């Protein structure tokens, strides 16, 4: 009976839908061939900043209306889209999505959260990581998924292997 309950609990946990969890340092990746748009979700920042995609200014955090949408173009599955936050009130420092290797402080300044068919991106605008709230400039990107940074993927794999080992040990 105990094994039946354990199996039922495990199946229930595995079948439960996972809540979206922001991934700090993830890339924004095109999910399938086709059009991609960016939609401004707002800002809770004290600093003035701009969100850029390549040479295109998408949004200004204190001037753009929530819901403003910009068509980014058509992309191929797997293309990595890099967005940049330019902090005007802090000497023009720029922070890009991704692992942070190219950022002035070497830290990731964007959190990316997966939903069905789109991702939400939130930037942190303070050098050195700030308060890690990732709500200083927020926007949605359609037809995209986040990548899992390699260190996080390794941790997830080790956690899964550890859980399998623990289950096997109990037998």
Describe the structure.
The protein has 171 residues and is an alpha+beta fold. The protein contains 2 helices and 13 strands. Strands 1-10-11-12-3-6 form a 6-stranded antiparallel sheet, with no helix packed on it. 28% of the residues are buried. The N terminus is likely disordered.
Essential attributes:
171 residues, alpha+beta, Jelly Rolls, six-stranded antiparallel beta sheet, four-stranded antiparallel beta sheet, 2 helices, 37% strand, globular
Assess the beta-strand content as a share of residues: 35-45%
CATH topology: Jelly Rolls
CATH architectural designation: Sandwich
Number of helices: 2
* Mean pLDDT metric: 85
Task: Please outline the major beta sheet.
Answer: 6 strands, antiparallel
- Secondary-structure element series: HEEEEEEEEEEEEEH
Oligomeric status: single chain
Approximate shape: globular
What's the total count of β strands?
13
The largest beta-sheet arranges its strands as 1-10-11-12-3-6
Q: Radius of gyration, Cα only, in angstroms? A: 19 Å
Low-confidence stretches: 1-17
A few lines on this structure:
The protein has about 170 residues and is an alpha+beta fold.
SSE layout and pairing:
Blueprint: H1 2-15, E1 23-24, E2 28-30, E3 34-42, E4 49-53, E5 56-60, E6 69-75, E7 80-81, E8 83-87, E9 93-96, E10 110-115, E11 118-123, E12 137-142, E13 144-146, H2 150-170
Antiparallel strand pairs: 1-10, 2-7, 2-13, 3-6, 3-12, 4-5, 4-8, 8-9, 10-11, 11-12
